[in-house]
Each structure stands twice: as structure tokens, then as C-alpha cells.
Amino acid sequence: MNGSTEPDRLHGLDEQLRQWTDAGLRRHLAARAGSQGPTIVLDGRPLVNFGANDYLGLAADERVIAAAVESVRHEGWGSGASPLVAGRSETHSAFETDLAEFKGTEAALIFASGYAANLGTISALTSQGDAIYSDEKNHASIIDGCRLSGSAVHVYPHRDVGRLNELLRESAQYRRRLIVTDGLFSMDGDLAPLPELAELARQYDCLLMVDEAHSTGVFGQHGRGVSEHFGMHDQVDVHLGTMSKALGSAGGFVCGRRTLVEWIAQRARSYVFSTAPPAAASAAALAALQIVRDEPHRRKELLTRSRMIRQAIVQQGWSVGQGEGPILPVYVGQAARAMELAGAMADRGLYVPGIRPPSVPEGESLLRISLCYGHTPAMVERLLAGLAELAW
């Protein structure tokens, strides 16, 4: 009760929260002490951390930290304005130039987050009269960008190129058509079938957009992502991603032809009407990009280790899907079971988050293991031992 006789305008929320609790769907806002890394203290509890997307172990790298601190000393913290007003610093500009060179594109543009990058880019490129073709397991930011665009949205079954071909063949009437997909899917850990998608984009004269949020720095000869991994880099029109995962910083980006990037800078509402992210985030990402270039062994060792751990988990009898990278889903089905297992792993000193709806469809709840370069063999042994004890 709110202590007055006035009607409670939030009537029903408490009951809904209770229902979510009973169904195992209510989230807990935990607090981490100290830096991100292979070990963390979460709500005062020391845990081996298999829940972060810090794939290359750069979030607390001293070189990345030093770059951010130096930027704060010279440029302050807050940007104070939109990038198109006075918020875009020389460091932002330098990072965009370096990122475009790294990605092998003409230009790049940074956003406050990967979520903002997807919302802004998709809605800037498409509108009423256009059509978008989106994988059913694309990230929520892609889904919301599609909704915001006002376009006709066609959702095809996960990685189902045949169904996508049918949808494209049946919908030639639209002005502009965009195929959008995650490169590395964030929950299932599998890769988009980019060679086939690129061929369909060519055949039906569509734009192809790939979100490399979880694959930048990890896949490809130079770490450009899944598009480079498949040799499809030059056939992707819109390269999107984040600095918040393998690059250990914060923010999102879009890369492509100069005309494309200029258009998005003019039209993306999440860019035009947001204060620019702190320059220090770009300084940190600049340092991280250099590490990605200089230390390719990080991603190579991570992918080799991921394959070995995946095989070991399968041998225990768990289902882990068809992934190829550092995201290992352990499928368990129901939300309550996923949270029960996550709690049991935490009791063993291991942070392995349970993932449930709406992050995944009903009946597909899972434990999501994120492998990072900094995990030691002893940590991995503890993970495998914990899963073995809980296998049924």
C-alpha cells in the first residue's frame, strides 16, 4: 500500500512480480565488487566468473586502463553534448578512424551502446515501404530496431536460409530490403550462415547487415569478426558491433562505406539525440584494438580452448548445440531448472548464469558459459567438475 486512500496507479505490479518469482523469471540485481575478470566478488561472494563477455581479458588490462585514465586527465569524463553539437572529441574521431582501418571499411561511427547502434542504424536505413528480414534469434536490439523502423518485418526461422529465400522471392514489391543477422548468436553461440546470406543479398539486391558484437576481436584472421572468418567481409554492407565485449570498453559502432556512415550520422535518432559517450571509452578501445592486432594468440588460444571444453561437456551428456566460439550454451529446458543449476554451480564457487525467457524462447532455458582468455586450466577443471556432478 502507498499509505493513502488514493487509487494505487501501480496496481497489479506486485502480483506480476510474484508470478515471475514463482516461475523462476524474476531477475536479481547483483552488485560486483572490484574489476571485471576471471574471478569476481558478486554480492560479497567470491566466484570464478563464467558470466562475462570479456572474451580477450581486456576489461581490466593495465594498458587499457592507463589509456582511459590518461584520457580522463586531459579530456575530463562527461562529453556534455550530442556528437553533432560539441560532444565528439578528438579521441572519438581518432578511434573511428582506427576502427574503420581495423574493419577494412571507409568509415566508422560510434554510439553510446551497441543497443543504440542497432536501433539507430536499422531505423535510419529503413522505413515505411521497406522490408527487413531478421533471424528469429537476433538480439533484442535488432528486434527493437526493426520495430522502430516502421518497415515490414519478416522473421525467418533460425539460420533457415531456405525459408529466407522463399520470403525474399515472395516480397519483391518493397522499395529497399535489408537482411539483418547476428554474426555470433549471443545465447546459442552458433554462427550465421553468412556465405548463403551474402548470396541471397546479391541475388535479390538486398542490403546485408551483420552485428559482430560477440565476434569482433575473436573471429577472423585479423579479428574483424565472423564476416572475415567466412571470407565475406567485402560482401557485407553494414558492419555493426560493440566495444563492450572483446574490446573491454563501452559503446557501439557501425562501419561501412562513407556514404552509409554519413547517412546514419544524419538520420539515426539514437546518435543525433544522445550525449556522446565519454572520450575515455574510445581511448580504452583504441588501446584494446592495438592489443588485438599485436596479440593474435589471445583469440587463437581462446577458440582452441573453446573447442576442447565443448567436447568435454558433450561427453558428460549435456546438450550444447552447434556453436563454434567462446559462448557455450548448456540446454536444460525449463527456467526453474536453469536457475536451480546456476545456484548449484554458485555453491561450488562458479558463476554460470541461468538464462530464461524473455532472453530465450519458452522451453529453451540454459546455462550460458562465457569463456575468456584469462581462465586458467584450474578454473576450467572446476567448471567441468561442477557440471559433471550435476549431470543427469
Describe this protein's structure.
With 392 residues, this protein is α/β, with parallel strands linked by helices. Helix content is 42%, strand content 16%. The strands form three sheets. The protein has a seven-stranded mixed sheet with strand order 4-10-9-8-7-5-6, sandwiched between helices. The longest helix is centred in the last third of the chain and has 19 residues, at 297-315. The radius of gyration is 22 Å and the shape is globular. The N and C termini lie far apart (45 Å).
Give a concise summary:
With 392 residues, this protein is of the alpha/beta class. The protein contains 15 helices and 14 strands. α2 (62-75) runs antiparallel to α12 (279-294), α4 (90-103) runs parallel beside α12 (279-294) and α5 runs parallel beside α6 (140-149).
Radius of gyration: 22 Å
Order of helices and strands: HEEEHHHEHEHEHEHEHEEHHHHEHEEEH
**Approximate strand percentage:** 15-25%
Give the mean pLDDT: 95
Main sheet strand line-up: 4-10-9-8-7-5-6
Compute the number of helices.
15
Largest sheet composition: 7 strands, mixed
Number of strands: 14
Helix content: 40-55%
Low-pLDDT residue intervals, each spanning 5 or more residues: none
- Given helix and strand content, the structural type is alpha/beta
Overall morphology? globular
What is the end-to-end distance?
A: 45 Å
List descriptors.
single chain, 392 residues, alpha/beta, seven-stranded mixed sheet, four-stranded mixed sheet, 42% helix, globular
